[in-house]
Amino acid sequence: MNYSEFIQSVAARPKVPPGQAEPITRATLETMAKRITGGQARDLASPSAKDINPCWHASRASEPSY
Questions:
Q1: What is the model's pLDDT at position 11?
Q2: CA 65 → CA 18, 25, 62, distances in Å?
Q3: What is the pTM (predicted TM-score) of this model?
């Protein structure tokens, strides 16, 4: 699944306004990245679209590697 397909799948959910799918996705990923370990974030980010990866890496940059 590429980035566009991923965002479209979020937008297809009930109660998600089409123009809000990308900001909602980014906010969700950034929040998750702050709450999970560095290894877990790397595991989730590795197969995801390149456009989504910066959300994970930016949130994890200030934390030590485990």
A1: 92
A2: 36, 25, 9
A3: 0.59
